[in-house]
């Protein structure tokens, strides 16, 4: 088991790091987090858990309104234009040991993350305070860059702040400026089938990974030989179509189908049409926002754009 929220908060107090905390419902995007912590002193952050082709991992933590181009960042690391992608969900659990939507600089506290490279937005240093999840997305804490530095140094990390919006020329006489941040070693994961990349916003989209400017095309995974020999059954009648970009329509279709299943004709005849309609409306009212959040995450995962959800939110400068 990795560090818990309570253990992290206790560690910050032990190090005499000043911070404020605010509990709120579980949030999966920067926008959702902003609704609950808008009155806190500080600016929101977005966080991304990445991997390269050699299975080396990176946590990128930036201000919510910092524009980060993954292709440019990949080139600056010396990995080529397409050298970075979202880390798979099993790596999120095995290496950072945090749930989906909880990637932050604090996630490198675990020993399993010792080979993960941490890239911090230089914009953090000019802010009075910055807001992060303390390994759990049902709470946000606000602290300054000095406090974050103190914590990172206490776990053997030398904080590295870089200009994530920079796009310096790279060529024969101009080597990649961030090549030193490429991990020298890579962790060994259990032999698990790679799943779809995790969306990390705040939180990334987070979420996020988090976290939350350039679109990255997701590669299709070729099915295994065994899977190809299995005759596929038609599922159109039971599986709703997923619109490419409109999560709202996807949610409405899910709700309509759920209502139709739960409120059968026999049930309506037995209890009255008015009761059926009332129950269906209540289902939609109670579940709409939660399912919409999930649908948005699924969409962002498919397009590996969870990180960029934060770029569409422009927080107020305090």
UniProtKB/TrEMBL annotation:
Pfam families: tRNA_edit
GO molecular function terms attached to this record: aminoacyl-tRNA deacylase activity; aminoacyl-tRNA ligase activity
UniProt superkingdom: Eukaryota
Domain called YbaK/aminoacyl-tRNA synthetase-associated: residue spans: 24-149
Region (Disordered): 172-239
InterPro entries: ProX/PRXD1, YbaK/aa-tRNA-synt-asso_dom_sf, YbaK/aa-tRNA-synth-assoc-dom
Signal peptide location: none
Biased composition (Low complexity): 209-222
Family assignment from sequence similarity: Belongs to the PRORSD1 family.
UniProt protein name: YbaK/aminoacyl-tRNA synthetase-associated domain isoform 2
Organism, scientific name: Hibiscus syriacus
